[in-house]
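Record pair follows.
FIRST:
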Amino acid sequence: MSGTVYLVSRLAIEKGQSDAFKKHARELIAFVRDTQPGTLIYEWYLEQDENACTIVQSFRDSSAFVAHVENGGEVTRQFLKTCRFIQVDFYGDVSDDLREMAKTWSAGIVPYHDGFSRM
C-alpha cells in the first residue's frame, strides 16, 4: 500500500445552491486535476435530488492530501459557500500531521489492513 491515502467525504448542498454547487465543483475539479499531481483519484457522485454529494479521493500519500488542502485557493472558498461537510473518513496510511488535521474535522480514520488494487 506504501502510503496511499483514500478519503470519502459526504457533503450536504445548501438549499437553493445546487446550480452554484455544480458550477464551483466543475471549477474545483479542473483546478485539482491541473495543479495537484499527488491527487490520484477525484470522483464526485451527486444524488439525484441534488441535495448531497459524495467525493471519493485518493492521494499518493498524506503529504499530497495536506498540499491539496493548503493549496485550494479561492476556488475552494467559493465552493465551500454552497455546501457543508457532513462526514469525512480517511482510509490508509495516515501520517501524524494528517491525523492531527483530521481531528479538527471530527474525521474517521481507518488504517490499512491488507489487499490489492489493479488500477
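SECOND:
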Amino acid sequence: MASTRAALDYLQYMHDEFFDDWLLAIAAYNCGEFRVQRESERQSRRRQARWTSSACSLPAETRAYVPKLLAMRRLVANPEDYGIAFSPIPERALLRARRYRRPARPDARRRARRHHAR
C-alpha cells in the first residue's frame, strides 16, 4: 500500500509540475521528469502547440506506454463495452507476512561467550 501511495503522490507531483497535463505526468513517470522537461522546452522553442510522435524524441517505450495506459483505463472503466469480464478481487489480504528468525552461527555464539567471559 505504501508503494502505491508513493507512486500516486509522485504522479500528482508530476501533474502539477507539467502544467496540469496528465499525459506528460505519465510520460515523466515512465522515462523521467527531466527528459520530459527537456522535450517540452524543445517543443516550445519550435513553437509546436501539440506534441506528435514523429516530432517527439521521447523513448519509443514511453511513446507506447502512455497510449497503452490510457487504453487500459478505458477497458477497466467500461469492460462491458469491450466484451470483457474481470474476476472479482477478494477484499482480504492475499499474502501474509511471516517472521523468521535466522539461527545464529555457532562460531558467533562461541565468540560472544568468550567475549562476555573476559
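COMMENT: Residues 2-85 form one domain.
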